[in-house]
Amino acid sequence: MIAGFGQGIAAAIGALAGSCVGSFIGTALVRMPEGRSLIRGRSVCDGCATHLSIDDLVPIGSWLILQGRCRTCGSSIGFWQLAAEVLAAAIGFLPWFLVDDPWFAALMVVMGWQLLLLALIDARYFRLPLRLVGLLAATGLAGATAIALREHVPMHITVGLLGGALGWGALALVRLLYRRVRSVEGMGAGDPWLMGAVGLWLGPLGVVEALLGASLVGIVSAVAMLLLRQKIAADTALPLGTCIAVAAWPLFCLQGFGWQ
Q: Residue 184 falls within a domain, yes or no?
């Protein structure tokens, strides 16, 4: 573990930074599907277009104080915003208590924040922006390279690349076969790429574990839908990317890169 006072400071900074990242993620959930810039233009209420003040933009706190409603018009601020801020804060907080290597804890945080954004976008819109998936792949390869060079074992990079190839290939094959047999799409085009990006972080064995974990997440989600009396049919869609993300981050936190 990262010892003592430094551990607590790192976790507190991670949580604070995470809540701010979560605020950005909440904004991205609204703006990206509309093709709007994430960095240009002031934040406004989606209901009345009133410019938001600093008091309205305090992560977590503003949502709770305003009870999820706009100060001006009273329109609802989606629960997605609060969920993004709380989850991102938790991702920024927890890794510092799990490992004794601050650089590896930082990689956990970076991976977690990216997966959170992808998971929420897929859960809400059933899509996975390939530029975000590409960023996840690039950071995974960069992280694996940095640690492999630090430990003077370059072969580890090859293991990461094999994981990426296996992750993409496995889901691409399933997607192709399903389309051939059923003559319809059974999986989003972004899902194989996401699994490939995750494979760069987890390695070949981690890919297998992540696929099993994603299947379990999907089953639990289906059971929850039944308990909530929601209708489930053979063609009911579940966000596979979200299931993959939910399974992949705990695996990385527990096991690290596939060769560690």
A: yes
